[in-house]
Design goal:
The protein is of the alpha+beta class. The chain contains two helices and five strands; from the N terminus they run αβββαββ.
């Protein structure tokens, strides 16, 4: 772990020194206008994790709940051929 940290510090120092000696090129700013259909609304938690996209929740759930939702969605009842395999 200590070796990895030393390598990271050395790598960062090398990149900083290269950036300081490099000639700065003028940059071009490009504005991109997206159509309304392409815009997506994200809802973030306090720790900056996406929890909702366009009103659809990204909550976690146990696998048996996912399986039950799929069975209901496809009208297959609650039959299971073997664990993890939908029929």
């Amino acid at each position: 772990m200590r070796v990895l940290k030393v390598a990271q510090v050395a790598n960062a120092a090398k990149r900083k020194s290269e950036a300081a000696t490099a000639v700065q090129q003028p940059s071009t700013i490009v504005n991109i206008a997206l159509p309304q259909q392409a815009l997506v609304e994200f809802k973030l938690s306090t720790d900056k994790q996406v929890v909702e996209i366009d009103g659809r929740s990204l909550t976690t759930m146990p696998s048996h709940v996912v399986q039950a939702k799929l069975m209901a969605m496809f009208g297959l009842g609650t039959r299971v051929l073997r664990p993890g395999v939908l029929i």
